[in-house]
Predict the structure.
Amino acid sequence: MSSISIKTPADIEGMRVAGRLGADVLDYITPFVRAGVTTGELDRLCHEYMINVQGTIPAPLNYCPPGYTPFPKAICTSVNDVICHGIPGDKVLKSGDVVNLDITVIKDGYHGDTSRMFFVGEPSILARRLSAITFECMWLGIAKIKPGAHLGDIGHVIQQHAEKAGYSVVREFCGHGIGKVFHEEPQVLHYGRPNTLEKLQAGMIFTVEPMINAGRREIREMGDGWTIKTKDHSLSAQWEHTVLVTETGYEVLTVSPMMPPPPPFIAASLPSVLA
C-alpha cells in the first residue's frame, strides 16, 4: 500500500485543472476527426492547441519507459484494430473507421489523462456496439470506486460486462495511478475478482481505461515498438477517465462540456459525482 500515493488537497486541485485541460483537447479536436484527415494532422492540431492555447505540455511526446524508444508524437491515435499507442502519421482516415484519441497533458507538473472513441462517417453496427459496451465497461468500473472497495471490484465488473457481450478484455495494458508522475502505482486491471487487490482510500487518483476487443484478447506488437494491435485483426475500443477516490465515492477529473455523459443506467443509480 505504501507505494500508492495519497494526494494532498493541493495535488487534487492541480489534477482537476490538468484533467479538465486533457478533456478540453478532445473537445477541440472533435470537429476535425473526419474522412480525409491524417492521424498526423490530428496530432499537429492537438499539439499546437496544447502548446499555444492551453500552455500545457503533451506528456506522450518523447515519453520513454525503460526498454522503449521515445514516443515520437503528442497524442496516441489508435485506428480500428489498433488497441493502443498508435503513432500518428500518414494514415488517412476513411468513412467507417473508428479511432481512439488518447490525450495526456501536463499542467504545472500534473498529468491529465483521458481518451475517447470517434467514428469517421457512418460506423458499422459492430463498431457502434463495441464502443458502447466499452464505454459502459468504463463507467461500471468507475461506479465501483469508493473508500474500502478493492481494485479487483473494478476489474471484475468490467470483465463481466465485456464477456457477457461476447467481447474480450486486453490483459497486457491497464489503468494506472497518476499525478506528478505519468504512470505510478496502483495498476488498475480491467479483469479480476471482487474483494481482491488493494483497498481504495480517499485521495488516490488513477485511470480507468478498459481496452475491449471484438474478437480474442491476444495482442501483437508492431515493429515501431509502440503500436499494439489485436492478433486476430478484430476491432478494438477504449475509453478512459482519470478518477479521484473521495470520502464518499469518486470524482471524475477529466470533465469538459462535450464529454459524453454517463450511460443512463449509471446516471440513474448515482448522485451527481461529476466535477
Notes: The helical segments are 9-29, 39-54, 125-143, 151-164, 264-267. The first strand starts at residue 57 and ends at 58. The mean pLDDT is 95.
